[in-house]
Specification:
The complex is a heterodimer of chains A (170) and B (410). With 170 residues, chain A is an alpha/beta fold. In chain A, 29% of the residues lie in helices and 19% in strands. Chain A has a 7-stranded mixed beta sheet with strand order 4-3-2-1-5-6-7. Chain B is an alpha/beta fold. Chain B folds into 3 domains: 142 residues, Aconitase, domain 3, CATH 3.30.499.10; 96 residues, Aconitase, domain 3 (2-Layer Sandwich), CATH 3.30.499; 138 residues, Aconitase, domain 3, CATH 3.30.499. A 5-stranded parallel beta sheet of chain B has the order 4-3-2-5-6, sandwiched between helices. Chain B has a 5-stranded parallel beta sheet with strand order 16-15-14-17-18. In chain B, helix 6 packs parallel to helix 8. Classes of the chains: A alpha/beta (170), B alpha/beta (410). At the A-B interface, helix 2, helix 6 and helix 8 of A face strand 1, helix 2, helix 3, helix 5 and strand 7 of B.
């Protein structure tokens, strides 16, 4: 979990939850494998058939904007994606990703030189994205969110610990 | 004001960026998010809902159900609600963001979470109110608490008098165009100024509803006599007037002179792609939708009737009141009769075509004028349709002429 390496699928700015998983599907089923067939459909209709296990999505500003649908990070994870790196995230998508165990990295310093097909390496503890010879730094993920992620998401976290980590902080 | 609410809850003066844990006063999930919430709640092995009277389910997004799959998810919600004693507002009751204030869940100073991004609507009642996902909601249902990052606040100050053909919807679309789709990410968006003071509760809710369209965590408006009038007899706690301190600090301020505003549009396929109606005057319109948690309230229906009374619509026009209470009010005032006579398809209270699941999916290359809050590609169920967001007044004019027209005042 500390180091994630994978092949890049590149997307632009403002990738909304309607592009990630159109609303028309999410009301019909909560079968994640069925939903995952439509992952990123609005942005790239063939995405779910092209993506391989372990691939990484790299995107621009405001990834996951729009609705609160948790199905958005869920379908990305179930499609096989191991992490999402973006210049910035919409806040609900960001929270949801940790809750369902999808690593997401906010890296404002990313530039547009990373392309689909490149390989990137995410070093979560160090706060670094390695792409070829280039290194981009990001503010490391807050420790309590890292704990939830390492537990495999909020459900597993609660089962493992019998409570939520933040209750101890309140 | 967000910091003030948090301070009252925690007893500690917060600084933007702090992580705080807040007790929840009201929690809501709907048919798009409750099924996953139930799945997470049960997977956690949680035994009970922390406070039944503070939790609500609403079936509004695909309501009534249009297919077997959705019906199964609705049944899952009804079964859970019955088993755990959670109040469920079923088909026909209306949209979650209208129901929560109507039924007394929302009050000034309260902390409201909804498994829906437009939960920021309730900030119109001076509540700290924000959207969360299903698993966060499962945590709330289990524990009654949740973590939040203390937001900075963006102030939008609207002064002067809105022209008679400009509604609060035009003001918020204009503001989103200025701030951008992510310009307020992680921030509270507080609306101030004498123009806001004079607005009805309906108009205020429209603006707070769309705070999320600039990335905002919550919208916020100080509570006053207008708020009190709406909430009295509905809430179970004493009403308080809550406003920002005089020396409150803001990360940014956007000043809007109301007099200078004209009717606005969010053009395809981004809410912050804003143009005045005048720029697209005469554009052909295939479908009009008046409704949703943004603009499905009594004030909006009255405006539509003022335009359409005794006339006949030229574009396919769908109208859906936001709640049963609004539907009843509209029936009593004769609005529904006028709309039906004018050729509108008036539907059951609920989200309607806004989320593209049912009740009015547009066809390819059609242009839709909608009073809703999102125009993302595919939002209304067809990726090749063009959705323009507008005020109910502009929408009613588009219905009347079958093309975009600059509305006259009402």
């Amino acid at each position: 979990m500390q180091v994630i390496k994978g092949k890049v699928w590149k997307f632009g700015d403002d990738i909304s939850t309607d592009l990630i998983i159109p609303g028309k599907y999410k009301f019909k089923t909560i079968d994640f494998n069925e939903l995952a067939r439509h992952a990123m459909e609005g942005a790239d209709p063939q995405f779910s058939s092209k993506v391989s296990k372990g691939d990484i999505i790299v995107a621009g500003e405001n990834f996951g904007c729009g609705s609160s649908r948790e199905q958005a990070p869920v379908v990305i994870k179930h499609a096989g994606v191991s992490a999402v790196v973006a210049k910035s995230f919409a806040r609900i998508f960001y929270r949801n990703s940790f809750n369902i165990g999808l690593p997401v990295v906010e890296c404002p310093d990313l530039d547009d030189s990373i392309k689909t097909g490149d390989t990137v390496e995410l070093r979560l503890a160090e706060g670094q994205v390695l792409a070829g010879t280039r290194t981009y730094s990001f503010k490391p993920i807050p420790p309590f969110l890292m704990t939830i992620l390492q537990d495999g998401g909020l459900v597993e976290h609660f089962k493992k610990r019998g409570g939520f980590i933040w209750e101890k902080q309140g | 004001m967000a910091e003030k609410i948090i301070f009252r809850k925690t007893g500690k003066r917060p600084t933007p960026g702090d992580i705080v844990v807040l007790p929840i006063d009201a929690a809501m999930a709907h048919d798009g998010t409750a099924p996953l919430m139930i799945k997470s709640f049960e997977a956690m092995g949680a035994k009970r809902v922390w406070a039944k009277e503070k939790a609500a389910f609403v079936i509004d997004h695909i309501s009534p159900s249009s297919n077997e799959g959705t019906s199964a998810l609705h049944k899952m919600m009804r079964d859970f609600a019955a088993a755990y004693g959670v109040t469920l507002y079923d088909v026909g009751e209306g949209i979650c963001h209208q129901i929560l204030p109507e039924k007394g869940y929302v009050f000034p100073g309260g902390v409201v979470v909804g498994a829906d991004s437009h939960t920021c609507t309730h900030g119109a009642f001076a509540a700290f109110s924000t959207g969360i996902g299903s698993t966060d909601m499962a945590a709330v249902f289990a524990s009654g608490k949740l973590w939040f990052k203390v937001p900075e606040t963006l102030r939008i100050n609207i002064t002067g008098t809105l022209p008679s053909n400009v509604m609060s919807k035009d003001a918020i679309i204009y503001a989103i165009g200025k701030v951008g789709a992510d310009g307020a990410t992680y921030k509270a968006v507080e609306f101030t100024g004498d123009a806001v003071k004079r607005m009805t509760m309906d108009s205020r809710m429209t603006m707070c509803n769309m705070a999320i369209e600039m990335g905002g965590k919550t919208g916020l408006i100080a509570s006053d006599s207008v708020t009190r009038q709406f909430l009295e007899g509905r809430i179970r706690v004493p009403f308080v007037e809550l406003a920002a301190d005089r020396d409150a600090s803001y990360s940014d301020v956007l000043e809007i002179e109301a007099e200078k505003l004209e009717p606005q549009l969010s053009c395809p396929h981004q809410v912050d792609n804003v143009k005045p109606v005048s720029a697209l005057e005469g554009m052909h319109v295939d479908q009009v939708f008046i409704g949703s948690c943004t603009n499905g309230r009594l004030e909006d229906l009255r405006v539509a009737v003022k335009v359409l009374r005794g006339k006949r619509v030229k574009a396919r026009t769908i109208v859906m009141p936001a709640s049963r209470e609004i539907m009843l009010g509209a029936i009593r005032e004769g609005l529904i009769e006028e709309l039906v006579k004018a050729g509108c398809a008036v539907g059951v209270p609920g989200c309607g075509p806004c989320v593209g699941g049912h009740h009015g999916v547009p066809s390819q290359s059609e242009a839709v004028i909608s009073t809703t809050n999102r125009n993302f590609k595919g939002r209304m169920g067809c990726a090749d349709a063009d959705i323009y967001l507008a005020s109910p007044l502009t929408a009613a004019y588009a219905a009347l002429y079958g093309k975009l027209a600059i509305p006259m005042g009402v």
